[in-house]
Amino acid sequence: MKYERTFESFRDSLEQILNLPVHSSDDFRELVNRWTDIEDQIEEELGWRYIRMTLNTENEELMRDYEEYYEGVVARLKPLLHELKKKIVQNERYAPFGFEHMLKVLKNEVELFREENIPLQVEETVLSKEYGAIVGGITVDFMGERKTLQQLSVYLRDPNRSVREAAWRKRFEGIWTKREELNVLFDRLKEIRHRQALNAGFSNYRDYAHRLKGRFEYTPEDLFRFHEAVEKEVVPYLRERLKVRREKLGVESVKPWDTEVDVDGKVLKPFKNVEELVEKTERVLVKIHPTFQERFSLMKEKGLLDLENRKGKAPGGYNHTLPKTGAPFIFMNAVGRPDDVRTIFHELGHAMHSFETLHLPTLYRPERMEVAELASMSMELISMEQWREFYESEEDFKKAKIEELEGTLTFLPWCVIVDAFQHWIYTNPNHTPKERYDYFAHLMDRFNPGVDWTGLEEEKRTRWLFQLHIFEVPFYYIEYGIAQIGALDVYRNYLKDPEKALQDYLRFLRVGCSSPVDEVYRTAGAKLDFSREHLREIVGFVAGEIEKLESSR
Ligand SMILES: [Zn+2]
What is the pLDDT of residues 354-370, one digit of tens each? Predict the structure, then answer.
């Protein structure tokens, strides 16, 4: 069936809505409902086109379908949607209770809006896509075959150390062929971003981006405190863990290619095929909450799961909300590894969030990443208590748990490096590429958990070139670190009192983003707290859990 709604038909509906008179709180509500309905229709169609494209990347027509819709409909509707937001703000006096937070977010958007920034944003979007094209197109010869950088990453887990080293070095060799190009690209992006900030009356892009993301609950200084807390509380613990890794691997020092390989040389196999993955996932879910299992079954029956790795599928995993279908879609590339178990529960956390927030106005859905990732990361950890379903022996189960717990902390130094780097870049916009590399190397040393980079200075300085977010979605990264700490709060509560923690989690899912992030976190039983004290507590908790698991093995 051909899709019916064109740009023109959406434009007509929006113009109708823009002409609606507002004289009462019922009128105000009607305005927000009709806005939500339009956003839902757009999201649903964009969602299906995205899903079809990622399921079959070799079909160029599907990619065109997606881009056509994005550029021809979604992007073109933005000015009209902006008018609608303005209309809502202008009729603030008719807003019933419960719309305070929405008005705050909308006012912020309206205040930051600058006509002259529209062409700059279009240019930025087009340019930032070049990163993916450049890096995705890099191939190198490895063991007699042409490989992409992504394909090379698999070898970083190879038990053979020289294979790991060769693959690791090849990745840099590959990205260095495009080093100049990437630097020029980044400088242009930085320039365009800086100009947008100036247009909006800010002195730098960092402050502008902070406001643009609606981060009312914390300041850049709070994030600096978070960086420091990771440096002082997390890194020392990771140094201890790295010593254990060094001993187990029997190496003189842990080089960057030794951090991902399994130290026991054992490869866990939690499931054999997707049928088994689905079946075991259902068994875990029913033990957490029967509603979770029912919703997962519904997704399965409706054909809203595509879980197995196949040639032609895009990499990674995601959950896509489909507001008109009334249930989301989960996409992933399962091959039978422990990572896949984590991924399915991660995406299921997002999925349950989608289900629970469908009744809310569009702006109260899980828009803020700090909130969205708290749902998914908490689900990973809560579900972990039932992962015995995936592992034949108690021994393997414990091993999987230790890996998951350790992963929550090992991610943090890289997360804050990526964030701190961008703070520096955009508050020092006149730096040279050399100064940029130097500053990055400085951060790598500051947050180094003991990895030996001797003789790899050039690699160390240039490692940020691999991080897509820095190029494509500036300042979007620290949210993962914030949510990870929050999820550990939730998990700690869950171990103490599962019933209460689960009730809190469900309530948290249902409130979506209808209040500021710190309040939403409180609903979940988590704290939005960047202090050293809080991080010390969390690290102590994780270390204690790991110790319990290791001493009982
Ligand atoms: Zn996620």
Answer: 999 999 999 999 999 99
Q: How far is the CA of 375 from the centre of ligand 1 (A)?
A: 8
> In 3D, which of 258, 322, 239, 332 has the Cα closest to residue 42?
322
CA of 293 to the centre of ligand 1 (A): 20
Distance 376 CA to ligand 1 centre (A): 6
- 466 Cα to the center of ligand 1, angstroms: 20
Helix axes 100-112, 75-90, angle to 10 degrees: 120
**Tokens 């991902």, residue located:** 260
In eight-state DSSP terms, residue 266 is: -
Cα of 182 from ligand 1 centre, angstroms: 27
353 and 377 Cβ atoms separated by less than 8 Å: no
Does this model's pTM top 0.85?
A: yes
Q: Do residues 78 and 14 lie in contact, with contact meaning Cβ atoms separated by under 8 Å?
A: no
- Long-range (24+ apart) CB contacts under 8 A made by 158-166 are 158/261, 159/261, 159/262, 159/265, 161/251, 161/257, 161/258, 161/261, 164/257, 164/258, 164/261, 165/255, 165/257, 166/142
CA dist 186 and 178 (Å) reads 12
Two structure tokens written together for 60 = 């160029």
